[in-house]
Amino acid sequence: MTTPMKTRTQQHRLKLAAALTTAALAAAGCSSANSGTTTQTAGTAPNGTQSAAQAAQADVANVTLHIGDQAGTGAQALLTAAGLIDKLPFKADWSDFTSGPPMLQAMGAGSVDVGGVGNAPPVFAAAGGDQLAIVGALQANPDGSALLVPKGSGIHDVAQLKGKRIAVAQGSSADYHLLTVLTKAGISVHDVTLVYLQPAAGLAALSSGHVDAWDIWSPFIEEGETLDGATAIVTGQGYGSPYSFTVASRAALADPAKAAAIRDYLALIAQAHRWANNHLSAWAAVWAKASGLPLAVMAKAAADDSSVATPITPAVIASEQQVANAFTASGLIPGHVNFEAFVDTAFNGTAS
């Protein structure tokens, strides 16, 4: 079963010392990660025709697919709500993560085969030379991203953020959303203090006033707004990237049986998103139970976070290249990443 997110009681018991320790450790991790040289090649993308043909012939009944999940994607809860969880033709081993970057770290270590993440985690993984590829894409609702300020804040527009402390999960889609927000306002990442925190710690820091703003995604946006009185000064409208991704390890893709299981998984995830977009109330009820958050929060999150499966087209790849280029230009990742080397379009047919 999906491991529920921390309850609000647990979240608000987070002490400042713990939050600052987390931030310091994350910042140290950033310095360590950026000290090396970017690996430019992750291996040639598999031949699409061959991958599809192998997947079509493979028997998945005896396959165990190790699937990464997170509260922001809710894949296991989504499949359950849509009545599709029992239609997975393979054995599923689910693991929960706080955000996309630690999921892809686990994938790089060989413990995860496939999982859903935002637009930035694949770029950071590619910059580290990880052996993975995006295999599926979702076009997301821009309301699923936001930059929040706490209740009673005197900050009302982005220009006021210069010199402020902003919480964000390092290498996440929120990291890119924040970068585009600052860039459009003429503010460098060096003009603010980035406090790298995972979502629960970010909410605690915002609520306690130890950061001035927090960039985050659904359902944490709605939690902050509904239960803490936070305000979004911008959403994803005009900022960030409209895509999120299913990512798979190269090792899993090289195994015909696992590649077939990934194909089936992608098809069912696309079907589940179509169902959810037409049954928001039912989806919100299941997601609330899985997340541990109130239905009032998740009803809004379900509407804000609606997504539609889309093929990985040249436009999608170009969008991810823009994400990579922006992080390189800001100095947040070293060197240039050729993102096309981290794409496998063999499963595009599952989006229809």
Structural commentary:
The protein has a 6-stranded mixed β-sheet, with helices on both faces. Strands 7-6-8-5-9 form a 5-stranded mixed β-sheet, sandwiched between helices. Helix 4 packs across helix 11, helix 4 packs across helix 12 and helix 12 crosses helix 13. The N terminus is likely disordered. By secondary structure, the chain is of the alpha/beta class. Strand 6, helix 7 and strand 7 form a beta-alpha-beta unit.
Short description:
The chain is an alpha/beta fold and 352 residues long. Helix content is 44%, strand content 17%.
Quick tags:
352 residues; alpha/beta; six-stranded mixed sheet; 14 helices; 44% helix; 17% strand; globular; disordered N terminus
Task: Explain the layout of strands and helices.
Blueprint: H1 8-12, H2 16-33, H3 48-57, E1 64-70, H4 75-81, E2 91-97, H5 100-108, E3 114-117, H6 121-127, E4 132-140, E5 145-149, E6 165-168, H7 173-184, E7 193-196, H8 199-208, E8 213-217, H9 220-228, E9 231-235, E10 243-249, H10 250-254, H11 256-278, H12 280-291, H13 295-304, E11 307-310, H14 314-330
Parallel strand pairs: 1-2, 1-3, 6-7, 6-8
Antiparallel strand pairs: 3-10, 4-10, 4-11, 5-8, 5-9
